[in-house]
Amino acid sequence: MVTGGLLVAGTTSDAGKSVVTAGICRWLARQGVRVAPFKAQNMSLNSYVTPGGAEIGRAQAAQAQAAGLEPVADMNPVLLKPGGERRSQVVLMGRPVADVDAMEYDDLKDLLRTTALESLARLRARYDVVVCEGAGSPAEINLRRSDLANMGLARAAGLPVVVVGDIDRGGVFAAFHGTVALLEPADQALVAGFVINKFRGARELLEPGLDMLRELTGRHVYGVLPWLDGLWLDVEDSLALDARHVTTGPPHGRQTLRVAVVRLPRISNFTDLDALAAEPGVVVRFVTGPAELDDADLVVLPGSRATVDDLRWLRRTGLAAALAERKGPLLGVCGGFQMLGREIVDEVESGAGKVDGLGLLPARVEFAPDKRLGRPEGTAYGQPVRAYEIHHGRVTVEGGEPFLDGCRAGDVWGTTWHGALENDGFRRAFLADVAARAGRDFVPAPATDFAALREARLDALGDLVERHLDTGALLRLISDGPPEVPFLPPGAPAAR
């Protein structure tokens, strides 16, 4: 049985690290390997609550599912949640411990590094293989001294490294070579090779470049993953939002339901909308201006890491006025729900004190220092709902009709529960109500099974790894560790 570890790094953010990590986890699990995912430090506003009540990155929860596991805090011991241009909330082992700027964060690095290495050690003692995902790029040389997610982790744990590059962006060969060449010798020694992601076209046209890359770097090319659209859910950050204008049905006609999601500056847990986008006949798009709401049958005001600041943004852009004047279904989730209330009292997140909400729901919000993390269950539309909640705001409902933990007033709904739309029966009943109120002939597909869709996509990632990567070489790398590789001086390719 194979045992060991691997770090999946990337030439850039959103290069495909999360996808490749999930694919390797699913492939290994299908081989009977006890495998677990790990990300030492994640910066993301898309998070999840484990059964144990810990908050971790949503991508690591999906990777745990790929491995056939329930997620635990050890899989993502450090989570950073940006709340402004310079400040982030630090979540350590699933619990918030501080709000810091970049300089203050540096003071925590020893604690964070120790915690991350202890988490990794526990996972390695429990599982045959741990597949680690890096963060950003390993060649961020300005951050190398304090790095705990890329080469700093690889060095400390003796992990071999595979670097993923997105060829669809262009410049992937330069990115591979430059990534390695910028590393110091001890870091370079751990970089075993490369994986090309999102390739379109004839493989034979790529082969000369692959051959040259091997010659120039002395490193293995573990494979080329083809472009397959719509494979990944549970993305980490808003870099992926530009690609998430998703049409699953005909773009026009009375049978189509059009959903506009307000793209808040600090939007969080926008993965709540994945289940809507998976419904045949539903068109989901992200919007930033009032005119984009005009033809929407449903508007969604999603979660936010900075509720008061994003509410100010709504007012500056004219979206607040457009929402207030709008006639038609409107759903607020978590931070979006809080904005729809009458009043927000926030001495915790923004320090703004008392702020008027949009006044579209009979609710009042007061922020508390402690964060509420939970896995609530309830019913709505006569359907069972299982969800999760992550919020500092405590909402007091002062009227309207009950809706999950929140309320409804006319065509406006609000809840702090994330993931509610992943419940198939509830989602279908809610969308049928929305369609009737919007005057559409849309009928939800009775066979849509979102949990099965997520499993199918994880299986597809496992298939990609099995069919397009050199799995024999990957197994040897995981078991044997980094091979001997040449040093590449910065700015000078290796002799050919």
TrEMBL record:
CobB/CobQ-like glutamine amidotransferase domain boundaries: 258-425
InterPro entries per UniProt: Class_I_gatase-like (IPR029062), CobQ/CobB/MinD/ParA_Nub-bd_dom (IPR002586), CobQ_GATase1 (IPR033949), CobQ_N (IPR047045), CobQ_synth (IPR004459), GATase_3 (IPR011698), P-loop_NTPase (IPR027417)
Keyword check for Signal: no
Gene3D superfamilies listed in its UniProt record: 3.40.50.880, P-loop containing nucleotide triphosphate hydrolases
One Pfam family this sequence matches: CbiA
Active-site residues annotated for this sequence: 334 (nucleophile), 418
Pathway entry: Cofactor biosynthesis; adenosylcobalamin biosynthesis
Record domain CobQ/CobB/MinD/ParA nucleotide binding: where: 7-231
Superkingdom to which the source organism belongs: Bacteria
The entry's keywords: Cobalamin biosynthesis, Glutamine amidotransferase
Family, similarity comment: Belongs to the CobB/CobQ family. CobQ subfamily.
UniProt function note: Catalyzes amidations at positions B, D, E, and G on adenosylcobyrinic A,C-diamide. NH(2) groups are provided by glutamine, and one molecule of ATP is hydrogenolyzed for each amidation.
HAMAP family: CobQ (MF_00028)
Record-given protein name: Cobyric acid synthase
Organism: Nonomuraea coxensis DSM 45129
